[in-house]
Amino acid sequence: MLEAVRLHKRYHQGELDVVAVDHFTYAFPPGLTAIVGPSGSGKTTLLNLLAGFDVPTEGEVRLDGRVFSSLSEDERAEVRLRHMGFVFQQWNLIPTLTALENVAFPLMLAGQSLRERTERAQALLAAVGLEKRAKHLPSRLSGGEQQRVAIARALALDPPVLFADEPTGNLDSASGARVVELLLAQAQGGRTVILVTHDLELSCKAERVLHLRDGRLTRIETPSAGLTEAAQSL
Ligand SMILES: Nc1ncnc2c1ncn2[C@@H]1O[C@H](COP(=O)(O)OP(=O)(O)OP(=O)(O)O)[C@@H](O)[C@H]1O
Predict the structure, then answer these.
(1) Is ligand 1 within 6 A of the CB of residue 203?
(2) Does any ligand 1 atom lie closer than 6 A to the CB of residue 11?
(3) Which of 25, 85, 109, 119 has the greatest number of CB atoms lying within 10 Å of its CB?
(4) Which residues form the ABC transporter domain (predicted)?
(5) What is the DSSP letter of 138?
(6) Is the distance from CB of 20 to CB of 10 less than 8 angstroms?
(7) What is the fold of 2-233?
(8) Phi, psi of 20 (to 5 degrees)
(9) Minimal-distance CA residue to ligand 1 atom 24
(10) Residue whose C-alpha is closest to residue 98's, from 127, 133, 128, 132
């Protein structure tokens, strides 16, 4: 399980101190959790802290009970490779690699043989409905197809945690719906999916919606149950 404990991030901007994340505490259960909040409320900073791209000023991130945020950069990268997948607004595929090679890339980093990783990447592309596009370069795929390749790549090493940052931001509604379906299927399959979005319709599909304001967790909504609880009581 991924947990944030009194996670705090302060930036120095000249004379000013900006608190981007303010003592955020939450244990992310399996399933889909959305993080919403106005621009500047700290969503991206929080995601970067949870994924270990950035380190907190105070507090910690724990993964399966082990403190993750105080590991070295290399150790965090290794944990990230094996335990976390990423689907961003900009799909960030490697432009010179085919769809199949993009999906196989993390498998190569993890030391799998060419045969193993080709078989696994083919199966993943089939799972997102793109087996016929395996040899295409990203530039020959639509935005929605590129995002599905990014999802297949994010799932390559079967990570328990999947981060999605505005994954439908650049997509038309039909492609966006397909991407959402794939993410929901991952959440229903028991993965912890953490979704940052401005899209209220999308956040309503989450089991839990965390509201951030000025870096603080101000409200937790459970849209399906129609319940809210005060974050302060956590
Ligand atoms: N590297 C940085 N240096 C200084 N201040 C930063 C840095 N990154 C973020 N901030 C500040 O931290 C606060 C939170 O920013 P963050 O990008 O996390 O918000 P956000 O909710 O993701 O916003 P948006 O929805 O616009 O992407 C903002 O006030 C921002 O200016």
Answers:
(1) no
(2) yes
(3) 85
(4) 2-234
(5) G
(6) yes
(7) Rossmann fold (3.40.50)
(8) -90, -35
(9) 39
(10) 133
36 Cβ below 6 A of ligand 1: no
In whole angstroms, what is the distance from residue 182 CA to residue 148 CA? Answer: 8
**ipTM, two decimals:** 0.96
For the beta carbon of residue 205, count every other beta carbon within 10 angstroms: 19
Which pLDDT score, from 0 to 100, does residue 122 have? 96
Give which of 55, 16, 20, 56 is closest to 41, Cα–Cα.
Answer: 20
39: amino acid identity, one letter = S
35 CB less than 6 Å from ligand 1? no
Closest CA to 26 of 60, 67, 68: 60
Task: Please tell me the pTM assigned to this model.
Answer: 0.89
Instruction: Count Cα neighbours of 121 within 13 Å in the Cβ-side half-sphere.
Output: 25
pLDDT per residue as tens digits for the range 159-187: 999 999 988 887 888 888 888 888 899 89
By the 8 A CB rule, do 198 and 29 touch? no
CA 29 – CA 35 distance, rounded (Å) = 14
Per residue in 19-60, pLDDT (tens digit) is: 999 999 999 999 999 999 999 999 999 999 999 999 999 999
User: Is the CB of residue 160 less than 8 Å from the CB of residue 192?
Assistant: yes
For 67, half-sphere exposure in the C-beta direction (CA atoms, 13 angstrom radius) is 12
